[in-house]
Design brief:
Blueprint (H helix, E strand, L loop, with lengths): L6 E6 L2 E6 L7 E7 L6 H10 L31 E4 L11 E7 L3 E8 L4 E9 L5 E9 L5 E11 L6 E8 L2 E9 L3 E7 L12 E4 L9 E8 L4 E7 L5 E7 L6 E3 L4 E3 L2 E8 L1 H13 L12 E3 L1 H4 L5 H14 L3 E4 L29 H9 L3 E6 L3 E2 L4 H5 L19 E2 L5 H17 L4 E4 L18 H18 L4 E4 L17 E3 L6 H11 L8 E6 L12 H8 L3 E5 L7 H23 L1 E4 L7 E7 L5 E8 L10 E2 L9 E6 L15 H4 L2 E4 H6 L2 E2 L7 E9 L1
Parallel strand pairs: 20-21, 20-29, 21-22, 22-25, 25-26, 26-27, 27-28, 28-29
Antiparallel strand pairs: 1-2, 2-3, 4-9, 5-6, 6-7, 7-8, 8-18, 8-19, 9-16, 9-17, 10-11, 10-13, 12-15, 13-14, 14-19, 15-16, 23-24, 30-31, 31-32, 32-37, 33-36, 34-35, 34-37
The structure holds (2R,3S,4R,5S)-2-(hydroxymethyl)piperidine-3,4,5-triol.
């Protein structure tokens, strides 16, 4: 008989996780999802009995169970949770005795030993207040000789009804493009071997009922909070197991545990919901509960990159700063090009001294000018990188990651520093600390512009991505500790390092180098599944997109950037007064709604017509909401028909109004839109079910729609 103490129930934030301690090999999660309520003793035990599979012909006599760390020694014949050996011996770990080391209503820590292989495994599972399930495992070598670890991953069971997978892929200028697959028997694996997650990595791997969308369909997803190599995989077995695994992807010999040493996995985080909006709300709520989470009213940022590129000239940048202050910018970020030898992207990385051929009086004049205008000053850096054409590379060729004495193929004419070498981190800390001490710098844009290859340390001759990521996190923390209030943006050729590992140590991500608003609609939508808007940089570009060559009006460019951490990246020193006034209106519009955007619940609508996009943010109390409606392409419907608004409070009555600073509707031969002319007040329920007529717009036009409860 199964007793109640054999079954653990973790419960918080609308999520239940039930764990059976009696499954062969290691405990198994038998339920992850809906809150099951206060399960009384026998009902909890019965849940475990109900989950026991039958033995079937042609299979093992003990049916394999999907445990938290599935192992071959317990009959698991698919991907194991732990792989390693002692030079080939002890290749099949067997976790004999499992103790509940610690347990609360929301957390359990299991400690298990393999007495033969002399290993200890500690598995920590916890459900946070937002209902996210976190898993983190530690393996310790208790033997006297080395243990070579190849893999330790977190395993999440997903419902058998999950028949479709969603993940993201991408490239420079188009990160986080969604892709869907049938979730059939076998394994769907997303590896990242770029030393950073990479533009093509998946931000999450979701498994849900067929056709699940943002508004409905049960869906579970896993994200790995890690900024280095990683593997996320979904697998369905013939024995009706369905799972998602996530963990670090280790290179050969990268983690060799000497006697007494341990390896701990990154945090693997699982969320679920009825629809992706509910699933992503858990990530947002959990992040917002952190004591170090950036507060609302994120400063409007003017970044110099697309405005001047490498053309650093005090007069030009002073005029740009003046224009920024005039339109209401609150932070001015001096991008790439300010340090020694950096006249283009072929040289200088590593030499973090102000280039006195461009800045003869140092950065003082521009910093003082910016701060005298009431704006914060921010500075671009790319500390992990080095150009072979730099004093640093010439002085310390052994500081560059490499394998077998040969430097890797260059990327953007640069190589990567070995942060696992303490001397490298000391140098970087000294350089950055002295810049932050000398100048009034409130913000660092921390870039990382190439993938890693052959990332070996000359000190050990071994792969050093794992150690490098941990050293990076320590460096970021040390700078923040020395300079309280300093904010850091994680950028990597745009959005190639977007993960909740880096966001534990930084304050926002640069979502993409592509600021074409049409591309951004998709990039921001799928980034937003994990990352809340206040951590996601979105800038208004010039009318002509530098990355796609398309032209767009200001309402589209600014309207798409509005629900995010808003900024400007455009040479606005050349604009006339009317153009500056129009941009200032959008900055004001953002400031008016940023508290809503940065604290509210993000919703994305599943429209029946793919020619349009509808998304919004609803305030935590449901009293106010802002949606953007974008006509992406032409539609076959004309007029487009009604749009319905998910996410509002069903029982409230909302006054609905068009709120764009630019409100002229597109096209000739149209009548006016009745509800825009004669504002209506409707219940959240009516807005969710009956809806209101969508405006007739030209393609690539956007309108803001405001909802205020009365
Ligand atoms: C890549 C970034 O994504 C850009 O925003 C810019 O900072 C450049 N690097 C500078 O080299």
């Amino acid at each position: 008989m199964q007793s109640r103490s054999d079954v653990i129930h973790l419960r918080a934030g609308g999520t239940s996780v039930v764990i059976d301690l009696t499954t062969p090999g290691f405990p198994a999660i038998i339920h992850w999802g809906h809150d099951l309520g206060l399960l009384a003793g026998p009902r909890l035990a019965d849940l475990a009995v109900a989950a026991r599979p039958q033995r079937v012909s042609g299979a093992l006599d003990t049916p394999p169970r999907l445990t938290i760390v599935p192992l071959e020694s317990a009959g698991w014949q698919n991907e194991p949770g732990l792989i390693g050996s002692r030079r080939g011996r002890d290749f099949s770990p067997r976790l004999g005795s499992v103790d509940v080391h610690d347990q609360s209503a929301t957390t359990v820590i299991f400690v298990a030993h393999d007495d033969l292989a002399q290993l200890r495994l500690t598995a920590t599972l916890s459900v946070d207040e937002a209902g996210l399930l976190h898993q983190r495992h530690t393996i310790t070598n208790l033997g006297s000789d080395d243990y070579g670890l190849e893999q330790l991953v977190a395993t999440f069971p997903v419902p058998h009804t999950a028949r479709q997978l969603l993940d993201t892929t991408g490239r420079h200028l188009r990160e986080r493009s969604p892709q869907r697959h049938d979730f059939t028997t076998g394994r769907h694996v997303r590896d990242s071997r770029r030393g950073r997650p990479g533009a093509d990595s998946t931000l999450f791997l979701a498994a849900g009922t067929p056709g699940f969308g943002f508004e409905r369909g049960t869906v579970h997803a896993v994200h790995l909070a890690w900024s280095g190599n990683q593997r996320i995989a979904a697998e369905r077995t013939v024995a009706a197991h369905a799972l998602v695994q996530a963990g670090e992807l280790l290179s050969s010999g990268e983690v060799i545990l000497a006697s007494g040493e341990s390896y701990t996995t990154p945090d693997a985080i699982g969320s679920w919901g009825d629809g992706l909006t509910a699933l992503s709300a858990r990530f947002h709520e959990s992040l917002r509960a952190r004591p170090n989470h950036p507060v609302a009213s994120r400063p409007v940022t003017l970044n110099t990159w697309e405005a001047v590129y490498f053309d650093h000239d005090l007069d030009r940048l002073t005029r740009l700063a003046d224009a920024g202050a005039r339109v209401g910018a609150e932070r001015f970020v001096l991008d790439d090009g300010w340090f020694r030898g950096r006249r283009d992207d072929t040289a200088g990385l590593g030499d973090w001294f102000v280039d006195d051929s461009v800045w003869p009086d140092g950065l003082g004049p521009i910093v003082e000018h910016v701060t005298s205008l009431g704006m914060q000053f921010g500075l671009w850096v790319e500390p992990e990188m080095v150009n072979p054409d730099s004093d640093l590379a010439r002085a310390h060729p052994d500081w560059m990651l490499q394998a077998g004495g040969t430097l890797p193929v260059e990327g953007r004419q640069q190589q990567v520093l070995d942060l696992s070498n303490p001397a490298v981190c000391e140098y970087l800390l000294e350089r950055l600390d002295s810049l932050l001490t000398e100048y009034d710098i409130a913000y660092l844009k921390w870039d990382h512009n190439r993938d890693l290859l052959d990332a070996g340390s000359t000190a050990t001759g071994r792969a050093a991505v794992h150690a490098g990521v941990l050293a990076l996190y320590r460096l970021l923390d040390e700078l923040k500790a020395r300079h309280p209030g300093l904010e850091i943006e994680s950028c990597a050729s745009g959005g190639a390092r977007v993960d909740l590992g880096i966001l534990e140590h930084t304050d926002r991500i640069w979502t993409s180098d592509c600021i074409d608003p049409l591309e951004r609609l998709t990039i921001q939508k799928y980034t937003n599944i994990v990352v809340p808007y206040e951590l996601m940089g979105a800038h208004v570009s010039g009318p002509h997109s530098h990355s796609t060559g398309r032209r767009h009006d200001l309402a589209l460019r600014a309207g798409v950037a509005l629900p995010a951490h808003f900024g400007i990246e455009w040479d606005i020193s050349e604009l006339d007064d009317a153009e500056l006034d129009e941009l200032a209106e959008w900055v004001t519009a953002h400031k008016r709604v940023r508290e809503l955007v940065h604290t509210g619940r993000a919703v994305h609508a599943d429209l029946p017509d793919a020619s349009a996009d509808l998304r919004g943010v609803v305030s935590p109390d449901g009293a106010h909401a802002l949606y953007t409606y974008t006509q992406v392409t032409t539609s076959t419907s004309y007029p487009p028909g009604p749009m319905t608004f998910p996410g509002l409070d069903d029982s409230r009555v909302y006054r609905v109004s068009l709120a764009s600073p630019t409100t002229r509707l597109g096209g000739s031969g149209q009548s006016t839109l009745a509800w825009a002319e004669h504002p209506v007040a409707l219940t959240g329920l009516a807005l969710r079910t009956t809806g209101i007529q969508a405006p007739v717009l030209f393609p690539e036009q956007l309108r803001l729609i405001d909802f205020t409860a009365i």
